[in-house]
Write a structure and sequence with these properties.
The protein is of the alpha+beta class. It is built from eight helices and 20 strands. Helix 2 packs across helix 7.
């Protein structure tokens, strides 16, 4: 029996259609997902992300321990700041990527819920004489995400006070068990955006208040289209244990100045050589056809890459895809074809993200 978020009943009354996702029954759509995407691009929409994996790390050695495990510089974070990071194999391949937030009482890691168990088990195996404790807090609070150019105005209207100004920065409201945490996040939409983490008991009232402003609810189908438009690789779909971190363009998740971590030697070796055999990139199709994951990318009838995810973009009014291509062919406007079901479909290589909008992306400008 899949788990349900605390907002399930309210979402059902708002017309949500649900789908099971990694052990959770989540809202897939409320209306037409293309219209939900347009709402994010033109005004704002609200998503329920309460099913996302949450791991709480405590103990006096928590910062030192994580610093030696993950790819980014956890020690550089002040309380209230966050970063994108990854856990790699010793050979520099991606086990999981996630977001780390340093708090006064511990560290919060947010990760795809389907990867949480594996992440927790791997970290636990490396706790030897360290004072580190890991606690799965998935579903113990609610998370609402407001995304779109009007999001700051709407959030400020609902929750008065100063909003975080930097990406992955958090600000608290209230005290004790009633605390609300507001974090600035936009990487999955390339728009201005904020996530609100609050006690489950207060989530329904806040959800209704947001809908009362006229903001549209949106589901995971729209979020997936927005992710692809934003050129963000997703663990388990666009990258896995066969993918090198530098192939997947996880540049914002990797510090090249911190000390050692698992896989650091291979990352440094590849960086110093200045090359990987293939790179993560975008493809824009010349027509409405949407390719499937695993479809080969061809140039002059030779396989040179692969599609990992794809969608129809209502923002660009064309089909787009993410995937991998031989390094020397990753050039804006390079013509290729995608073979699917015995047919070929013309496309051009497109730099990521597809959409450059209001919200700054931590991936832009990093290579």
């Amino acid at each position: 029996m899949p788990r349900k978020t605390v907002l399930h009943a309210l979402q059902k009354s708002a017309g949500a259609a649900f789908q099971e996702h990694q052990g959770w029954e989540v809202a897939e759509t409320f209306t037409d997902p293309l219209e939900e995407v347009r709402s994010v691009r033109n005004q704002a929409a609200i998503f329920d992300l309460s099913h996302r994996g949450a791991l709480h790390v405590s103990g006096s050695d928590r910062i030192r321990f994580l610093q030696g495990m993950v790819t980014n510089d956890v020690e550089a974070l002040a309380p209230g700041q966050g970063c994108h990071a990854a856990l790699l194999t010793p050979k520099g391949k991606v086990l999981a990527d996630f977001w780390i937030y340093r708090q006064s009482e511990g560290v919060r890691i947010e990760v795809e819920v389907g990867l949480l168990t594996q992440l927790k088990e791997i970290l636990e195996k490396h706790i030897i004489a360290d004072d580190v404790r890991l606690e799965d807090r998935t579903g113990s609070f609610a998370t609402l995400s407001i995304q779109g150019p009007d999001s700051a105005r709407i959030v400020r209207q609902m929750i008065p006070g100063e909003l975080p100004t930097e990406l992955l920065q958090s600000r608290e409201r209230g005290e004790g068990d009633g605390r609300t945490l507001i974090t600035r996040r936009s990487e999955y939409t390339a728009e201005e955006g904020f996530e609100i983490r609050l006690p489950s008991s207060a989530a329904g009232e806040l959800w209704d208040r947001f809908l009362g402003t006229g903001i549209r609810p949106a589901g995971m189908a729209a979020m997936e289209i927005l992710r692809i438009e934003s050129g963000v690789p997703r663990a388990g779909i666009d990258m896995d244990e066969s993918t090198l971190a530098l192939e997947a363009s996880l540049n914002d998740a990797i510090s090249h100045t911190k000390g050692c971590y698992i896989g650091q030697e291979f990352v440094a070796r590849i960086r110093d050589r200045g090359q990987v055999r293939r790179r993560f990139t975008g493809f824009r199709l010349q027509g409405p056809f949407i390719p499937s994951a695993g479809d080969p990318v061809l140039r002059e009838e030779t396989a040179v890459g692969i599609v990992t995810s794809a969608a129809f973009s209502p923002t660009l009014n064309s089909s787009i895809a993410l995937g991998y291509l031989r390094r020397e062919l990753v050039q804006e406007g390079e013509r290729i074809v995608i073979r699917s079901g015995g047919e070929t479909h013309p496309a051009v290589v497109t730099s990521l993200p597809f959409i450059h909008r209001h919200g700054p992306s931590p991936r832009e400008g990093k290579d």
